[in-house]
Amino acid sequence: MIVFDLICSQGHGFEGWFASGDEFLRQQQAELVRCPICDVGEIERLPSAKVRIGKSTTPALSAATPPAPTEAIAGLPAEVLAKLREIVRNTEDVGERFPEEARRIHYQEAPERAIRGQASREDALALTEEGIAFSSLPSILTRDTH
């Protein structure tokens, strides 16, 4: 495994673990590498003074292992990340009905509550133009961790 220091177009820094440099490039070009904070797919590799390759026997290289579940991810302490995931789990998942349900809540046609779901870029733009406040959730908060 090779560990790269990465940064998204929004300025969030994080690490990525890849089988090889070519594998990073393949995933980067396919926008499979995404920022764990904002979920942007525009990712660049930062120059790094440290080289970490898993199971290295070369003294100049450190043998790195992926972070344990209790370690910080994306710069967040594990307890903060766990609390954020708990908050997301306690929202109502309305799926593809998100734009419709967000409008109903905004226009007081439905009870106010925390919801999450999916919206196309066009729907998200329309909601923003209507003055409906919402935020994209990074996948690090929504993916199943069990």
Average the pLDDT over all residues and give the rounded result.
Answer: 79
Shape by Cα distribution: elongated
Strand order of the largest sheet: 2-1-3
Structurally, the number of domains stands at 2
Return the structural class: alpha+beta
Low-confidence stretches: 51-72
Any idea what the radius of gyration is?
19 Å
Q: Helix-strand pattern, N to C?
A: EEHEHEHEHH
SS summary, helix count: 5
Quaternary structure type: single chain
Helix fraction, binned, reads: 25-40%
Percent of residues in β-strands: 15-25%
Number of strands: 5
User: What distance separates the N and C termini?
Assistant: 24 Å
Largest sheet: 3 strands, antiparallel
Structure description:
- The chain has 146 residues and is α+β, with helices and mostly antiparallel strands.
- It has two domains: 2-45, no CATH class; 78-142, no CATH class.
- The chain is built from five helices and five strands; from the N terminus they run ββαβαβαβαα.
- It has helices spanning 21-29, 78-89, 98-106, 121-129, 139-142, and strands spanning 2-8, 13-18, 43-45, 92-95, 115-117.
- The strands form two sheets. A three-stranded antiparallel sheet has the order 2-1-3.
- Mean pLDDT is 79; it is low at 51-72.
